[in-house]
Structures are given as C-alpha cells and as structure tokens.
Amino acid sequence: MKPQRQWIPTPHTRFRFEDTFWKPRVETNRTVTLPAEYEQCRKTGRLDAFKLEWKQGDPNPPHIFWDSDVAKWIEAAAYSLATHPDPELEALCDRTIDWIARAQQPDGYLNVHFTVVEPEKRWTNLRDWHELYCAGHLIEAAVAYAQATGKRRLLEVLGRYADHIARVFGAGPGQKRGYPGHPELELALVKLYRATNERKYLDLAKFFVDERGRQPHYYDLEARARGEDPAGHWTGGYDYYQAHLPLREQKTAEGHAVRALYLFSGAADVALETGDEGLWKALLRLWKNIVRRRMYVTGGVGSARHGERFTFDYDLPNETAYAETCANIALVFFAHRLLQADLNAEYADVLERALYNGVLSGVSKDGRHFFYENYLAACPPFERFARMNPVVRQEWFGCACCPPNVARLLASLGLYFSSQSAAGLAIHLYAGGRLETTVGEVPVALDFQTDYPWDGTVRLEVSPAKTVRFALALRIPGWCRAAKLKLNGTALPLAKLVANGYAHLERDWAPGDRVELELPMPVERIEAHPGVREDCGRVALQRGPLVYCIEEADCGRNLADLVLPAKAKLTAKWEPKLLGGVVSIAGTAKRREEKQWGETLYRPAGRSTFRPTRLKAIPYALWANRKPGEMRVWVRAE
Amino acid sequence: MKPQRQWIPTPHTRFRFEDTFWKPRVETNRTVTLPAEYEQCRKTGRLDAFKLEWKQGDPNPPHIFWDSDVAKWIEAAAYSLATHPDPELEALCDRTIDWIARAQQPDGYLNVHFTVVEPEKRWTNLRDWHELYCAGHLIEAAVAYAQATGKRRLLEVLGRYADHIARVFGAGPGQKRGYPGHPELELALVKLYRATNERKYLDLAKFFVDERGRQPHYYDLEARARGEDPAGHWTGGYDYYQAHLPLREQKTAEGHAVRALYLFSGAADVALETGDEGLWKALLRLWKNIVRRRMYVTGGVGSARHGERFTFDYDLPNETAYAETCANIALVFFAHRLLQADLNAEYADVLERALYNGVLSGVSKDGRHFFYENYLAACPPFERFARMNPVVRQEWFGCACCPPNVARLLASLGLYFSSQSAAGLAIHLYAGGRLETTVGEVPVALDFQTDYPWDGTVRLEVSPAKTVRFALALRIPGWCRAAKLKLNGTALPLAKLVANGYAHLERDWAPGDRVELELPMPVERIEAHPGVREDCGRVALQRGPLVYCIEEADCGRNLADLVLPAKAKLTAKWEPKLLGGVVSIAGTAKRREEKQWGETLYRPAGRSTFRPTRLKAIPYALWANRKPGEMRVWVRAE
Lengths: 638, 638
Hints:
2 copies of one chain form a homodimer. By secondary structure, the first copy, chain A, is an alpha+beta fold. Chain A folds into 4 domains: 1-6 and 15-24 and 240-416, no CATH class; 44-233, no CATH class; 419-518, Maltose phosphorylase, domain 3 (Sandwich); 523-637, no CATH class. Chain A contains 17 helices and 26 strands. In chain A, strand 21 and strand 22 (582-592) form a beta hairpin. The two termini of chain A are 46 Å apart. In chain A, helix 10 (257-274) runs antiparallel to helix 11 (277-293). The mean pLDDT of chain A is 97. Helix content of chain A is 35%, strand content 20%. Chain A is globular. Strand 23 (602-604) of chain A pairs antiparallel with strand 17 of chain B.
C-alpha cells in the first residue's frame, strides 16, 4: 500500500483547551517554562554564543548542540505566540533571531561551534557531531516562527542554510554522500518543503534517508579522512546511529532512541510525501518492534542508560529505565506521522500512552524542573551509586535537549488532538475545549465537555455554520472495553461503526447536533508479556489513559515488598487537594512484618507474617512532585 | 573484651583432602590453573617486567598493579609446593624470584612501574596508585615461599623493602604520614612480623591502620603537593578508600569492597596481636553491618559495579551484582581473623557461605576461566548493553586480581578447615580427608569420612598417638536445624554441648574414638529481609552450605517468569553425570503460557493461564559451566 498523507493534523491554534488537566499545564508552560528556559539559555551563554564573540582561550566554548536548544526554545515560543500573542515574548524572539541571522556565514553556513571554536572541522564528522542536527532544529524554529508571526526572516536565513547543505551533500560530483549522525534534519526539511513548496528540500530529506547505512559506509570514509580507525569509536557499532543497515533493511529498532525516532519520523514524512511503499513497510515493521516489544507501559522508550538506547526485545528494567523525555516525545512524533496515512487507533493509543505518562512525567507541575530519564521505579540512594541522575527533576542540564522539547510539545499540544481529510474530521484525543475548523468551506466548531482523563464521559456539540455532510471519526481508545455512543440522545450500534478503533459517523451535521461518548474507566491491573523479566509477577495500575504509580509519600518505604492481592478492591477517587487535583487509586495491600526480622538478613521462607497496608496510587506523570522518595509503577501482585 | 589470638589456624599442609568436592578442584588448581596463570603472566609481560628493561616509548608499559599479580601467583605456587613438591614449579618460582630480587633498588625500593615508567612519581599518590598494595602482595608471597621451601631469599628482599617503607612512612620527623589507598600491606606486615618476629613490622601495620582517615587528611595534603584539587577525584569521597573517617569511628562498611575487607582483615590482625579492644569493637560493628545488611546470599559483597563498592543497607541487586571474586575471598579472610579470637559459628557460617558459593563461582570447573563479577541473575544480552562483563568466565583480565586470588585460596584451602588453641582443636568445615596435627606434644590424626557438602553425615575417627585430653570443638553449621552427634555409637545431648554454634567435646581421646555428626540437609527455601527490594516475593534454594540457582540449560528461557509454589515438593538427587557429579534439586514450578500473548506487550491481568514447568537447580558455584544462558538465584515464589 502506497502511503498517502490523507489525514492532515489540524493546527494547534484551532483547539482551545478549557479543561482542568491540560489547560493549566499549557498555561504553566507559557508563563513559567518559556521564561525559565530563556533565562537558562541566556545565563549558560547559549544566546550570546550567536554573537560569535567567543575566542580561543575564552572559557565556556559554545557546545556543538547549543544551537539546537535555542532553536527549540524559539519553536516553542512561536507555537505559544500563535495562540497567545505576547509582544514581549515576540521581541525576545526577534532579538534572538537577529543574532542568529547575523551568525550566518557568507556561504550560508550557520553553526556557532563550527564557526568560532573549530572552524577547520566543519562537516568532518557527521557521525558524532551535531551540525546537521542543529540545522534541523533551526529550520523547525524558522517554519514555526513564520507560521506564527508571518515574519519570514529566520525562514529565509534557514532557507539559505538548507541550500548550502544541499550544495555540500548529495550524490552529485564533488558532493559528500553523508547524512546526519543525529537524525532530525530529515523531518525538518520536509517541514521546510511544506512551508516553501520547494521540492529540493524534500529531495534532500529523501537523499539523507536513502543514503543512510549504504556501503561503502560514509562514516568509515569520513573517519579515515580524519586519520582515525573507523572501528575505534565508543558506540561499538553503527547501530547506535541507525546506520548499520539501510533503513529499508532494518527490522528492529536499534541504537540511540531519540536518533531512531527522529529518523523514523522524518522518513515517514518522506514516505508520505513520495508515496514510498518500501520505506513505509520498513517503518511499520520498526513501529511494531518498538510498541510490541520495546516500549514501557508509560510509553517510554530506550531502556539503557549507556547509549540512551534500545537494547533487545522485552528488556525493560524499571529502576534503571532510561526512557529519555526526548525519546518519548519522539515516539509521539512517529505515531503522529503514521496516523496521517492510516486512521488506526493503534497509533493514537501509543501517542496517548506516551503523552499522558512518559512525556508529561518529564516536567514538574511547577513547570520549572525536568526529568531527562523517566525511571519506572526509584529507591533514592540507588541512583547515586548507579551513577544515574537523582530522582528529583532538575532545572536544566549540560545537555539540555529535554526541557525545550517538552516546552515545544506543550505549546503545540492541540496539534495532536484532531486531523482532517477530504472525507472528514478525526478526533484522536479528548479534552474539554473548543475546536474551530472548516470542513470544505464551512466553518465548524466542536465543543467538548469532559473531565477526561479523570472521567470518560465526553459530550460533544457540533456547530457547523450551516448543515454540512462529513464523517466524524471518534477514536475509541484501546484501553476502553465498553464504550457507548449516542447521537442526539439516541444510542448507536458502536460495533458497526468502528473500524480500526475509530467510530465513523458520516452524516449531514447540523448546528446543535450532540454526540455523547461514554468511555468507562475502571481501574485496571495490567500485566506485561512474560518476556519482560522485571515485570513478571507484577501489575501496573491503569485507569483510562493514565498509568499509575505508588510513592513513598503515600505508601511508606520498601515499596518492593508491598503485594496487591488479586481480590483487593481498588477505588478511584477525586482528590481536589492532592497534587492540584487528581483521581487517586486506593486499596488494601499487604506487606511483610519487618519487625520480626530484626538483624536477620536471610532465613527460611514461610515464617513471615503479613500486615495490611494502604496502597494509594497517583498518576505516574505526577510523581516526584512531593518530597523525594521511593516510587514504583509495577507492583507485586498475587 | 580484649581480642586475643586464641585459635591459631592449623596450616593447610596438615589437611589432606580425600573427597569428591574439593580434592578435584584443588588438583585442577595445581595442575591447570597455576600453569595457565603463569603463562598469562608471561605472555602479558608481567614476568619480564621485573627485568626492568622497559624504556620510554616502548609499548606495553608495566602497569601499577602488575607486581601484585605475579606475587599472588608465587604465593599460590608456594602453598602448592608445600603440599605437592614439584621441582619444575619450584624452579619457575626461583627464576621469577631472582628477577624480583634484581629489580630491588639500592635503597630497598621494589616496584616495577615506579622504577621504569614513572620513577619521579614514587610515593606521590598513595590514594590512587598501588605501590603499597603491591608491596603487601610481595610480602605475602615471600612469607609463603619461605614457609613452603625454606628458601629465604625473597623474604630477605621483602624485609629490606619493608624496612625502606618503614623509613619513608611513620610519625617521625621527615616521614610521610600516609597509608595505602588500597589496603593489603597491613595484613601482609602482620604476616611478616609473625614470620620474622620483628615487632617493627607489626608497628608499621598498626601505624597504617591508626593513621587512616585522620585530619589533616593525608590524601588532601598529597593531592595539593601534586598541584591537584583534592575534591576533584573521580570517587567523589574518601569513603571509597575507607579513609573518610578513622577506622575506629566507621560504623558501616563503605567504599571499594576489596579495599574494605583487606583493611578490616589487616586491622583484625593488628588488634589480635596488640589486644586493641577499641579497634576490635569497630571491626565487629563493621562485620555486622556487612553480614546482616550488605551481603548476598552467596556470600558475595560489594554490590555496585561503579566503584566495585558497598552501597547502602539491603541494596543487593541481582542482575547487576558486582560481588567481585576478590571481595568474596576477602570476606573469607576477615571471617577467618574473627574466628581466631572467638570460636563463634557466625564467622564460620559466613566463611563457609562465601567459600562454597561466591568464591568458588569465581573459577570454572576446568580451572582455566574466571569470573570477576559474580552476578546472581543473568540474561545474556543484558550484560552487553549494561556494559558489564559477559556471563562467560574469561581466561584473564587487564586488571587480573581475581584469577591468582582464587589460585592462592584453593592452594591453601586446608587452612580454613580447623584451628587449634591451648584448649583444643576446632573443626570449622567438613570434607572427607585426613587432618594430622599435634595436641600438646601428642600427634593426633583425624580421619573424616563424609560426602559433604552433598551429604550431611560426617564420620570422624580420632587417632592420637596415645590417649590425650583435649576439647574437640565441632562446628554445627548455622544452616542446620536438626544436628545429631554420637560418640562411639552413643547419642550425645547436643544442646548441652553447644556454645556459639560449636559442640565442645572435652575428654581423654584414645586411638579409635569415633564421632558421628549428622547434619540433615533438607532443601530449604530462603527468603531475604523485606528491605532487599529485588528479592521480595522470591526465594533462594539452599541445601547444606550450597546456594542453588536455575539455569537456562535446565529450565529454558524467561527464568523470571518461573514461579515456585509454596507446596511444590523439591527433591535432591545425586546426578553423577551432571557437571562432574552434583546433587541437583528438582521440582515442578509453573510459568505463564507465552503462546497466548502473541505480539501483545501489555494486557489486563488475570487472563494468563499457567503451565507446569520443570524446575531444576544446580549449585550456584557451578553455573556457567555449560553453554551461556540465563541464570537466576532468587526464584519467584508463591
């Protein structure tokens, strides 16, 4: 099947959140996170770096990936400006863009590190350095800023840079047949193509995708040109860069998870634009490998700290989970691409799983602190001895990719909620709020009344400017096992309407039409495939799209010894004062009586008595918003 | 209580193994391991290094700890020569000793690296470099070789080196108040003291022990003298070196486990020789912290790979267990010291636990392959991604401390089986064989008939040259809950005879007296303290002193999903053809039916059906002697 980009995401500007779950987070992102990240970029020297004033011998040389942090911040600010005009924020952006524009070299090249620190090394190590990665993020920022403000200066600058890159790289004589060691540029070039309608950018993206992993291997040639042994690099293989094989031949998701998922997203964009069936087939195979064998229940991906990478099927350790925030965001991106070709709830289910759990966990409720790793279990002293980051979100990182990535995602959140095709309008995620779009030529508003994800009742009023025929496709989440649907008060035969997890209502929609979707949300115990060795004998609690965890703050220490009996009743309860308002899950578990042990470390089994203990679980995404302590997603079960 | 060295270990030469468990291992050690390790030392340049021919610019510079590898090999060879004279082996030793002697500098200094590679750095970084550590191992070798062969050349060389060290280090004017960054020399100096009766060596050992961790901190002063910031070292604190506090003030076992246990062993030797009550009290506190909160069920210690160190109470992860072979051996050494003051089976229980499990696992049955880490669970691809050593024993290591450490332990194994005091003779461990010693002036032989550890019946014939009165103290192992004792066919009231885990039989022993000890060995399920988070809900199988494990070779893959029901009957069975003859443990466990899962990764709990599955366990020490695969000590239990 040739992939076609049938379902175009409705721009985020069309959806206005009016709910208690996302609206405050998006607001905090705008009012706290964006200024805080700007300040971090400023005080760490990332902004001033574009002034190109750094000289040999000065402290704090601009790092090879600094440009990308600023770019992601501009992109986030642009999305925010598109929904919330803010002259001060726009002025900050304009000033920053001015510096960026002035940093561009006469030939179009634009990278701070390789202009002031190591100019002689330009384009000499695509494998390990981040020139093309930074270019990609700058392009994304430029496209977003032009769309948000109509100001095209940054877009023009990046167009010139992209043209420069297109002169340097390619299959022509005298060109380098290289490709990004850290993919990102591929998807950015497709955005640039869509923004400018210049086919050359799509062609360049396709070149990078196709060239990857070919023999003779560019990274070998490039290493030898540097006088290095290609075999001598730290990653031990090109799978780290997804360059061990041509992408079309890759059968499992390997290597650095952010690299992998940015690549797959960009390749999906290329395939959608070019109708490349072989490439699409490879991407679906990789998708399946990830979501069916290599993804945490939180939607986290890339389980190993060393190499921030995918490892092997079913290897999903909890305490040492890496599941980098950026990788989880990139999984959202990949799912979002697949959903453009094929309205299949499998993609939206994963997108939702990652978004509500492993992505949202990346930022604190206060909007000022971030996780790089998203562990699924924590025992605070352990992290220190295992050389992992502490179980407390940090204000910033030396390698600061995650904070602005969260910011740009939240600033553009509405983008992921719906999409449109010639046939109609698809709703992927549910939140209270208003979607305003047009179907054909007819303005249509959809008002959503729901407490999702806390409650599964979604009331939807469809208000076209005049009666208009279209198919409304409503996602029936994979976690929901007893959905019901009413149209204007009349129950519909849902099973007959559902295809691939979406209920399709094709009709003449008239002002005042009402749809009511019931998505019952019982508390569920989830178990993992027997191959997931750390989860054997354990369950995760899930309610609706939210995966839950237990924390020391509620359940005391030694969470590993807490056992949830199969028959224990679990009750969901709205707690307005807990963490700003959450539905918690409570029940009675049991644990061994520790007192009986005294100073004994090992003893014959069977002597222990158990005592009842309160189990209270909160949404995983909200953990570590109280005082530091133990946490656990997978709870022992009987 | 002032510590006194009441119970002197009977030399290993007095016990002749005639059993099926240890005798073949000791023989393999002598005939395979010793030659193989000599060859490794030779081909890696460790032997030739003593010729001091290395010049700047040459490849393969002698490493700072190479001297110690050769020293431990000589020590092992000496123990072997003492029981099995072997002119060829002795000639190899003599030739090596000749090189070592010639490498000694005119002032007595003796260290290859700091003679040929960095002579200007002699004694400038006690914290990180291994000069004093190497000196300790050379002294141990010298003492052992003199005792085995009567040849005193190496002892004289090392006496001169010790005298040099005593001139450089001390509290006197112009002396350095430093101490080993890697303890070892302390216990070696006490050996040298005992071998030479020169009090100055004991005094120097005591100086090193007392000086450790004092302020102003020697490692601070020394770092500043090198022009370095003392705070800038990689370990992040002096606890790594057990130098964060004076030893007497240390309450928990911290830092690098081998360093810690060599230090505690050496300090115990000092305390035993000097009657130092405060030091002894501190050591007992550290002992308790280790064996009651920080020791694997295998007797392994030092759970963290990073820093090869102790971490925090109850932190005993299985797949990432470090439990270095050397650390487990050093725990045997420490226990053996404590046992000299106090005939308390707690010490011998730990000694036995480590020896039969976490130490013996360090060497393959073929005697040619070694583990550095002793994991308690393994899933082969995991080690690669976690940057751990593979789950296959290696022939050698760049840092090769473990192989010759195992060799010297096995070559002197008899040393740990019994000890003697003015009051009598104590038997700590049981094996078929013959102990020949003297009590007072009277030669006494004890013949042990037993299949220990496969069977718990121990028949002992006491054969004094003439009737002689002494107390025979027989250890009743802590794992045994129903021991019985007969003397000349008559049952004795064991409870009345036992104090601190030893049954004391004081009487006139006459030729032909027979003792029969019954130590029933049912298969036991062991559980760990609720604080050991990885072992919650799991049991280890133990029979007698042997901890068991399950392996993929017997039980298939996904061992984590195998569950042992509480009521499942477990049967021990002698299998002469398995791994050279072992008692295996078999029973019926269950595991989830994997087929039902297909490509599902997560699903609601409660749908799984279980299928019966064979559980077969083998002694942990013998794992990884078949083809590589999964392994697990702690098995899920219901």
